[in-house]
Specification:
The protein is an alpha/beta fold and 294 residues long. It is built from ten helices and 16 strands. It holds the Pfam family AA_kinase.
Length: 294
């Protein structure tokens, strides 16, 4: 009979080939605002990231915080709305976005990783000239008239330039970067960038081996609410067009498509509410969620 400790040991041993495969490789983990909130899950997430670094892997955390920004805006009496999964961002909103993302959430994640005995460093696109944004151009087609128009989302940005100097330096150190999706434009403004888009740009620039999106659903769900385990780029585009994929899942899936097209190998959307989701996905046979394939 196999004892519990033998089972635990064999699970640890199972991780070896995965650790070897990812040694010195970059893994970008996007930690969504919907996956945050439960302190014990946050601690488990931080432990996963710490364990990756200890295993010789180069983890980079890019985080969101959409619900937390929404709560703060509400508290301040500022109205907020989304168009195509992106928050319409005026001058007052971008100040709150920067405060919540680069201020509170960023430092909370840094503290959680540090509490696991590692060295996390909190950054945003402004640090080390890492990311410069341009004003986002979101095109939508009116379903009735079929006319395309460009939405003005205010200070919503897209990553236009990514400089990897700082991240390369940190990869050779003990430091684990934790990055908030806020960046300056060459026009001097601060831009609010969707965290999924930001994570995709970082993964692309660093030629990451894996890009994981931790959210609050098991992955991409079909019309009946069933998990789609594997999704091709063509199928993904069709599900966006027919409305099966909506809201915050749109920028996530669009980023997955771009990352695949840029050569990032393993792009997965998975449930961040599953304890140790990152370790399960990377270091065991028990991967879950939706794998996006070419
Ligand atoms: N087809 C779909 N499959 C799964 N989730 C979907 C789908 N279409 C829309 N969603 C929504 O997308 C949400 C995840 O995106 P988002 O709210 O931006 O989360 P996060 O904060 O993790 O980035 C889900 O909670 C769900 O409400
Ligand atoms: C332009 C835009 O929509 N920016 C997002 C940035 C945060 C984010 O993306 O957070 P999640 O990953 O938790 O959704 C926002 O303002 O909510």
């Amino acid at each position: 009979m196999t004892t519990t400790s033998e089972m635990q040991a064999s699970l640890l041993a199972e991780a070896l080939p995965f650790m070897q495969a990812y040694e010195h490789k970059t893994v970008v983990v996007k930690y969504g605002g919907h996956a945050m909130g439960d302190p014990s899950l946050g601690q488990a997430f931080a432990r996963d990231i710490a364990l990756l670094k200890q295993s010789g892997i180069n983890p980079i955390v890019v985080h969101g915080g959409g619900p937390q920004i929404g709560a703060m805006l509400k508290q301040m009496g500022i109205e907020s709305r989304f168009e195509g999964g992106l928050r319409v961002t005026d001058e007052a909103t971008v100040r709150i976005v920067e405060m919540v993302l680069a201020g509170s959430i960023n430092k909370e994640i840094v503290a959680l990783i540090n509490a696991e005995g590692e060295w996390a460093i909190g950054l945003c696109g402004k640090d080390g000239n890492m990311v410069f944004a341009r004003k986002a151009e979101k095109r939508v087609r009116d379903p009735d008239s079929n006319i395309e128009r460009v939405l003005d989302l205010g200070f919503v940005g897209e990553p236009a330039e990514v400089d990897r100097t700082l991240l390369d330096l940190l990869a050779r150190s003990e430091m684990i970067p934790v990055i908030a999706p806020v960046a300056p434009g060459r026009d001097g403004h601060t831009y609010n960038i969707n965290a999924d888009t930001f994570a995709g740009a970082i993964a692309g620039a660093l030629e990451a081996s894996r890009l994981l999106f931790l959210t609050d659903v098991p992955g991409v769900l079909d019309r009946n609410g069933e998990l789609i385990k594997e999704l091709s780029v063509t199928q993904a585009r069709a599900l966006i067009a027919d409305g099966t994929i909506s809201g915050g899942m749109i920028p996530k899936v669009e980023t997955c498509i771009e990352a695949i097209e840029r050569g990032v190998a393993g792009v997965v959307i998975l449930n961040g509410k599953t304890r140790h989701a990152v370790l399960l996905e990377l270091l065991t046979e028990h991967g879950a969620g939706t794998l996006i394939v070419p």
